[in-house]
Amino acid sequence: MPATRKGIHPLVYFQPVYLPQGDGTEFAAVSGSVHRDARNARSFRKSLCREFALDYTALRRKYREQGGTGLTPLLLAPEYVLIPIKTRPARCGGDPCYGFFNLNMVNFVEKRTDARFRSVLSLKNGLTVPVLSSVKTIKMMMLMGYSLEQALRIPRRENNSVSEMLIRFLRILEKEKERE
Does residue 57 lie in a domain region? Predict the structure, then answer.
């Protein structure tokens, strides 16, 4: 799944699903279209990490140093973090249960009274996804995702000092005065 030319990756979430042929992955695009892949969620995650040249082991180590527990959020690019949320119960040991959701596409999380699911995620593209994680757990994972992104953010090598920005602003004002 390649990134678009604008740099915005079209993936909103991916989660494990049971397909007739075995474990598979359901994923959704920003457009709202939902697709299924025959690969299991772990293989899908590994291919996504390869696509973004992400060293998952190093990321997991940094996440643990930050005090994180459980599955590590995927920090794929600046402002493109996928957080793990439990989406289905395990049928047997080692069964993938967690989906990964684009942190910036989560609109809100609300408690669900349904006996099968504890919460529902409302996404900015209009999709809603029932999940097994509680609202408290989801909000904690969102905070950990933001925290990890801030801790690992690489400062851009641009001339953004205040004085240089002020000089650019003044030049723009001069050009606009010349046009008038």
Answer: yes
The angle at the Cα of 63, spanning 124 to 108, to the nearest 5 degrees, equals 20
- Between CA 22 and CA 39 the distance in angstroms is 9
85: part of which helix (H) or strand (E)? Answer: strand 80-86
Q: With respect to residue 52, please indicate whether it lies within any of the assigned structural domains.
A: yes
| C-alpha span between 26 and 60 (Å, rounded) | 24
Per-residue pLDDT tens for 149-177?
888 775 544 555 666 666 776 777 777 77
Q: Is residue 128 part of a domain?
A: yes
Residue 68: inside a domain: yes
- Residue-wise pLDDT for 96-154, tens only, equals 899 999 998 999 999 988 778 989 999 998 899 999 999 999 999 999 888 888 887 75
> Could you list the residue range(s) of the whole structural domain that residue 106 is in?
11-179
Q: How many domains does the chain have?
A: 1
Residues 84-100: b if buried by 16+ CB within 10 A, e if exposed = bbbbbeeeeeeebbbbb
Prediction pTM value: 0.77
